[in-house]
Amino acid sequence: MKFMKMKHFQRFEKLYFSKLSLRKGFSFGLTSGIITTLGLIIGLNSGTHSRLVVIGGILVIAVADALSDATGMHVSEEAEAKHTDKSIWESTYATLFSKFFFALTFMVPVLLFELSTAVIVSIIWGLFLIAATSYYIAKKENAKPFKVITEHLLLTALVIILTHFVGRFVAAYFS
Q1: What would the pLDDT profile of 23-63 be if each residue is shown by its tens digit?
Q2: Which of 56, 83, 126, 142 is deepest in the core (most CB within 10 A)?
Q3: How far lies 137's CA from each of 52, 70, 73, 111, in Å?
Q4: Distance between CA atoms of 62 and 99, rounded to whole angstroms?
Q5: Distance of alpha carbon 67 from alpha carbon 60, whole angstroms
Q6: How far apart are CA 80 and CA 4, in angstroms?
């Protein structure tokens, strides 16, 4: 059974990650989707403690920020003036779909649990995804996984902490 799962992953990896353009767009969209959505959840929860506001925020991030990041990826790739039109669009679409999809995964805990529990589940889910992606990147680049994972988790933790305090600041001074 484990062999079958590994075989399917290798086929998936070969199809979607053999091209730099897809790998770049997917990893950017995934990372941005996780960190932005976590920051939004933490900040909105700290400032409002409103499930409705958090759900609205996740939906807005999934749509608006996915489109924004995909456009940013597109313009960035064009500005390098070294990519084909096809690879530029591959990066654009990979960013759009991965950002949209991974941002929406954070809706699941918010819909299933009480908001305070959903925030904790979301943090665990986000840190897991960042660690798994970091491990994959480290292995692909022949780097030390511990160093790469630690670096990325610390940056994610910084976002979590800062957005918590921004949410509290907004609640204290603007409500």
Answers
A1: 888 999 999 999 999 999 999 999 999 999 999 999 999 99
A2: 126
A3: 36, 21, 19, 31
A4: 7
A5: 11
A6: 40
